[in-house]
Model the fold of this input.
Amino acid sequence: MDDPTLAVLAFIAAAAFLAGWTDAVVGGGGLIQLPALMIAFPHAAPVQLLATNKAGSIAGTSVSSLTYLRRVRPDLRTALPLALAAFAGSLGGAFVASFIPRDAFNPVTLVVLVLVGAYTLLKPELGRSSLLRFSGRRHYGAAMLTGVAIGFYDGALGPGTGSFLVFALVGWLGYGFLDASAKAKMANFATNLASLIVFIPQGAVMWKAGLVLATFNVLGGYLGARTAVAKGAVFIRIVFVVVVGAFIVKIGWDVVQQFWG
Done:
């Protein structure tokens, strides 16, 4: 593949910064970054796009994870099993990623986003504070099941993983948005790492683009995590709803064009 032009690199850098900020606050940065890569590299294979997206995203999730860890101090008794399960699920998903057709990306993501957005809007009290629905082994089992399922999705497809993790931790386990965002970042770092363990030996990463993404994803991720910690759960919920709504419109239009364009 030809080297990207300066204009292409500037375009993906801007997308990576916005993706890093969004991902650190509510997750779902891949729904900005991955479409940007699809536009910038229209002839790239799906596995190349996924791998390069992960190379950029892992830098941002590492910084935002550390920021949340220092400032929110999430309970590691839940966060670590969640992250380990997500790592295992993502490994499995990454192995099947090369067999998934590019046309499958948008319809699957759209359906999940609509369900997530509708549920969040219908429950305005959701995520304002932590009110755990399970205790003991059931709680840890639910966290690990969440990690495996969403981790597999992240390895195989990827877009929206952070948002889905936040939603699952809030809507199913009962965490507040701030605590859920902190745990989600740790799990998302684990899924990105697992995917790259599979993708790098395959030679799937477009490294020049990946390094640009990584640099600007870090900047956006650091700023986003600090903003989320400072503003709290209400701010995160508002951003979550706005981001999910925007993604539904964007991906919905893509699906319409895909099947009827």
User: Anything to note?
Assistant: The two ends are 28 Å apart (CA to CA). The mean pLDDT is 85.
